[in-house]
Amino acid sequence: MAQARRAARLLASLKPDAIVASDLMRAAATAAELAAVTGLAVTHDEALRETYAGEWQGLTHDEILDKYGDQYAAWKRGEAVRRGGGELETEVADRAAPVVLEHADRLPSDGTLVVVSHGGTIRTTIGRLLGLESYYWEGLGGLSNCCWSVLGEGARGWRLMEHNAGTLPEPVLGDDD
Description:
Elements: H1 2-12, E1 18-21, H2 25-38, E2 42-44, H3 61-76, H4 89-105, E3 113-116, H5 119-130, E4 148-154, E5 157-165
Parallel strand pairs: 1-2, 1-3
Antiparallel strand pairs: 4-5
Helix pairs in contact: 1-2, 4-5
C-alpha cells in the first residue's frame, strides 16, 4: 500500500484525465489510491485482468518447473504456449489493448490516461500497441510493483517513452520528437 500511495502522489502530478483499472483486488486498490489523490473515478474492466495461467495459478516457480518443465521451457523460448492450459499472451493483448485504446480515444487532446493492471497484461498490451510481433514482447521486461510505463503518440503511432519507471518522465531533447 505504501508503494501504491507513493506512485499515486507522483502520477497525480501528471494531471490524469481518466483512470481505468483491472477489477482484481491489488490493481483496484492501487487505482483507488490515485483516485483518492486526484478525485477522479476509476472505471474497472475485467479485460485488464492478469493472464490466466490455468493449472500454473498459485504455484511457485520451482513447482512450475517441476510439474511443467517442458511447457515452461517452450514458453521461455517464445513459443505460443497455453501455460497450464490458460491464455495465450496474444489473447491477453486481444482483450486488453482495445480497452486501452477505447479509453484513450475518449481523452481530450493531450489528455492523460492511467491504466492500472498487471505486469503480464501491461507488457503484452504495450507490445500490441507498439506493433511488435508477439515473439518480442518478452524483450520489454516486467514491471516492478507500482511502477509504470509511459506511452505517447508519435508520428507513426504509439511510442514507448519510459518503462518500469518509478519516477516522473523527463522530456526528451533531440531531433527524434
